User: What shape does this take?
Amino acid sequence: MNLHQWNCSVQDAIAIQKNLAKRVITQGKPEKIEYIAGIDVALTPEGVGYCIIAIFSFPHMKLCEEVFSSDTITFPYVPGLLSFREGPLVLKAYERLHIKPDLYIFDGQGIAHPRRFGIASHLGVVLDVPTIGCAKSRLCGTYTKPGPNKGDRAYLYDKQEIIGVVLRTRTNVKPVFVSPGHKIGIDESAEIVLQCTDNYRIPIPTRYAHCRVGEYKKSS
Assistant: This one.
């Protein structure tokens, strides 16, 4: 967990991303998935951050555990460097877990990132665990719009490289942008996210995390 310092300059952060991106594995999937985590972070204008890790059984999607963390955010807002703002909060919450899940889904990017190192990839490498990024919007890349039905998908490209999947998780609703974080393949990431969705656009673990971290922020 101590691969680098989190309190660093923007230039150093970019260099860290470029270096650690070489360690990302984008193939396969966990042999067995019993628990899946949803992770989300909420920030206040005053610079306080709140994080939740919510653990669900898989594939039944029953809540098994939730842990929270909060702290002051010191790293500036810079597009593409989200993990340096939110990563320390995630690690703080991770240390409080009793159940260690087999896979983590982040509300953010995996390799669908200009340096192939979004927050899901970053925390996956730091913790050496399988992770997926499931973002509500695109950070980079081009794609052809997928079909209208749940399960329809199209690859997200950066030039000739496939960096993710544009996945329709609900019929006639905007797709999500799924990319491997670490220790999982592109198609496998999309399949697992689809298995975690019900009647909503956002998969159950991260949707729950989003709602709960908002409540946690309001009550703090």
The longest strand covers residues 48-57. Residues 109 and 180 are 8 Å apart (CA to CA). The domain at 10-219 is CATH 3.30.2170.10 (archaeoglobus fulgidus dsm 4304 fold). The chain has a mean pLDDT of 96.
